[in-house]
Structure of Aspartate-semialdehyde dehydrogenase:
Amino acid sequence: MKVAIVGASGAVGQEFLRVLDERNFPIDELLLFGSSRSAGRKYTFRGKEIEVKLLQHNDDFKGVDIAFASAGAGTSKEFAGTITKYGAVMIDNSSAFRMEEDIPLVVPEVNAEDALNRPRNIIANPNCTTIQMVVALKAIENLTHIKRVHVSTYQAASGAGAAAMDELYEQYRQVLAGEPVKVEKFAYQLAFNLIPQIDVFTDNGYTKEEMKMYNETRKIMHSDVKVSATCVRVPALRSHSESIWIETERPVSVEEAREAFAHGEGLVLMDNPEKKEYPMPLFLAGKDPVYVGRIRKDLADENGLTFWIVGDQIKKGAALNAVQIAEYLIKVKNIG
Ligand SMILES: NC(=O)c1ccc[n+]([C@@H]2O[C@H](COP(=O)([O-])OP(=O)(O)OC[C@H]3O[C@@H](n4cnc5c(N)ncnc54)[C@H](OP(=O)(O)O)[C@@H]3O)[C@@H](O)[C@H]2O)c1
């Protein structure tokens, strides 16, 4: 396989290097791309130094089988033609194409086969909060249809990129040193704070991030489910957490839900209140699965169930999900 990573220097790009290595992804040649900021920089992959090339409109993608793109929506839109011109499958982490009809939006545990129908040779990786939520929802949807979802998210700083993670570290240092706090990546100081806004506001008062959870969940699950989300940035470094309430067509008992989560693909049940065992972002960064805990009947709705999930949004929410899509294509001999 000839593989390319577009946006190699970023938080997701760096995770691609780790995940591809960790999973022994079959690679004969790896190409790295970036803007003029990182072009020329070298990264080591499987003991070999690879120099970042400047992403340009040229023939650099000739012979590439899979291109993992994580360089923002603007770059993906501008370069999709160049990347896919010679037949490379572009698996895109940005929001550029997710809701376009002729672009599949894929979470392998839920709708892997959708990746096989890609008229433009582009497959979109969903929004990170949506990915980890649908992995959990799928386990319950297998039992009975989920009609409604209410969700509050607790999203780590790194969801806004590598520089945002650095800014949070720096803000804590500045606060503790009594220095003025520098705010660049977020709307407000995040250290010692919560910010109930991720992405820009839309006309209905929800943010774009919240509307992504509504629209993308329906597309991935091929479902009429309604999702009402409140997305909050929290001063955790890595791994997003979500508090989820679902309403199902028939009531689901806690025991049944535990069983479903325990056997659900991509899930780990971590729910032992007596031992204070529940998922927490600090301890689950860098892990592959989505962890589920705090499973309870919803006291306000007899067809309701509530639970708490944590997943590493740079890993399962981005790089790992994209690599799993590629692995699926290889497995069904659809590529390579
Ligand atoms: N962070 C997450 O948790 C997460 C999760 C899911 C999806 N995503 C999505 O993944 C994408 C990247 O996110 P990130 O967090 O990795 O951001 P990041 O840390 O800020 O990295 C951005 C990357 O894009 C590259 N880039 C920017 N403009 C470019 C251009 N014109 N040409 C080539 N490369 C360019 C940068 O390269 P230079 O350094 O050379 O400029 C850098 O490698 C975004 O679309 C984001 O929404 C992120």
Q: What stands out?
A: Residues 2-126+318-331 form a domain with the Rossmann fold fold (CATH 3.40.50.720). Residues 153 and 319 are 20 Å apart (CA to CA).
